[in-house]
Amino acid sequence: MAIRRLDPLLIDRIAAGEVIERPAAAVKELVENALDARAQRIDVAIEAGGRALIRVIDDGCGMGVADLALCVERHATSKIPDGDLTAIATLGFRGEALPSIASVSRLEIRSRARGAGDAFLIRVEDGIKGEAQPCSQPEGTRIEARDLFAATPARLKFLKSERAESQAAGDVVRRLALANPNVRFSFASEASAGFDWPACGDGEAGRAARARQALGAEFADNALAVHAERERVKLSGFAGLPTYHRANALAQYFFVNGRAVRDKLLAGALRAAYADYLPRERHPVVVLFIECDPREVDVNVHPAKAEVRFRDPGLVRGLIVSALKAALEAALHRAATTGGDGAIAALRAPNGFSAPRPMLNGWDWRASPAAPPPGFAEPAQQAFVEFLPAADARPAAFEANGDVSAPLGAARAQVHDSYVIAQTADGVVIVDQHAAHERIVYERLKRQRAESGIERQILLTPLVVDLDPDAAALVAERGESLRELGLVVEGFGPGAILVREAPALLDGADLAALIRDLADELAAEDGALSLERRLDRRLATLACHHSVRAGRRLRPEEMNALLREMERTPGAGQCNHGRPTYVELKLADIERLFGRR
Question: CA of 568: how far to CAs of 377, 443, 547, 565, 573, in Å?
Fold first, then answer.
């Protein structure tokens, strides 16, 4: 078959297939153009999910008649004024958005340059550009793309419903609005909810206000400020508390030099930072901004500019992981404020407490991979290391004591020998005693391992644990890594493991049950996990076996000691399996429960 040159219109449609795969992509390109034109107000409106109409109006610098005629030509751009592809400071490049959109729609552009007395319009239909004509238009640019993909009907078959496409377009505008809090944004669509957000100003205050507009007051109330810098790479933004999570990663917003991106490197760093706090299949909510020299990042690696490539990816990943971990550890016991709403919803459920109900964001803690397998024996009841022996502590058995002004208040009662009720200055806290102590022990074990190694204790009589032969072999093979955790084990013939030493902190724990649980965990372990993460998962199992159990009565001193230790412990708002350790009900929540509000 002979080689021939493609028709120019066909070339444009092929290019459009790379850049404009759906209406949201066209919206993204047009809004980015408006931002590059230094617009202070951008209004976006779509019809039929963007198929029938996409309209973007801005008050930017506008274009004169010469630029207007050139902007719809291929290989014409203002995004790289000096021709240096290694230092792109705009929201281009991969640009060519206007000719790509024009090749798959009926495009009309009206523009008036700032300070100019005349405005002009140009139309492109079926890839044919018309002549520029005078028109009425305030300073700025108005672009309308109608009948998107009408010339390529096969593409229409791959679009989703009008509502889905509208939501995708709205998310694009939301991401760009988060990156530009000093600009007013509006979005209108008949198929999904719109918005109109006034400008919020620059700096952290502006970003915080825009995050509240875009993600709601709930996120603002449950977000931690993040600031870090390493080797001229800066990280800032907001990270949601671990107990404020989602079922998908759609609420994760990353920006590199003001450019909204979805990047595997950044997503992986985020997972690593939250790995010690979240259950499987749950995702944190974050808004993170990375700023660096444009020469340190390649923005020209993806047709839709959705991905970037860093010159030093290890530096960026390490900065994100360390900064987020520091912020989460500094939050100590803080948990999401949504716990009160979940508690009220459970209390108002028609079936009461007849069946277990998830308390937070629709997640059931029993689905956690770190949860003890059903059917395994629990170890004998253990006392807190620093606490006094257990005693009867029924609600009426002691007078009120403790510091009500402390973050988690003062213990007032223990109910069902499992939950500690504490009074705060403005509400009530309900603590799951096992989950809370489990986290405390886990963090103490991690600290021991990092500082001086976990203190071990030689067993007076070595313990023999019978296992399946394959499981026993697996445990014996991991003997060196288990030694780092304070467990000294060795094979003892087919199907048996000999335990010679155990962590001193686990004095009195059911070591046989612990070894069986570890064997199960090793058999199901994900080979992609880092060594540190594997060790942390095993430490979590150790902590679970040592923690005070539900069903054990605590003395008032023990309850208050538990509350104070929670306040000092990083991540104490959630246990090792990711479920919340306490729920706080403000007085306003209680009044709502009784219909007072």
Answer: 31, 11, 17, 5, 11
Q: What is the DSSP letter of 121?
A: E
Question: Distance between CA 146 and CA 538 in Å, rounded?
Answer: 58
pLDDT in tens, 443-457: 888 888 778 778 888
Q: Compute CA 445 distance to the chain's CA centroid, rounded to the nearest angstrom.
A: 27
Whose tokens are 């709502």? That residue is 592
- Do both 442 and 576 map to the same domain? yes
Domain harbouring 159, CATH code:
3.30.565.10
Q: Is 217 exposed, middle or buried (0-12, 13-18, 19+ CB in 10 A)?
A: exposed
Looking at the DSSP assignment, which residues form a beta bridge with residue 229? Answer: 234
In a domain, 351, yes or no: no
Instruction: Return the pLDDT at 347.
Output: 60
Residue 354 has pLDDT above 70, yes or no: no
Token pair 């208050």 in the structure block, residue: 560
Is the distance from CB of 412 to CB of 422 less than 8 angstroms? yes
SS3 429: strand
Residue type present at position 466 = D
* Continuous segment of H or E residues that includes residue 585: strand 582-586
pTM of the model: 0.73
Q: What is the model's pLDDT at position 121? A: 95
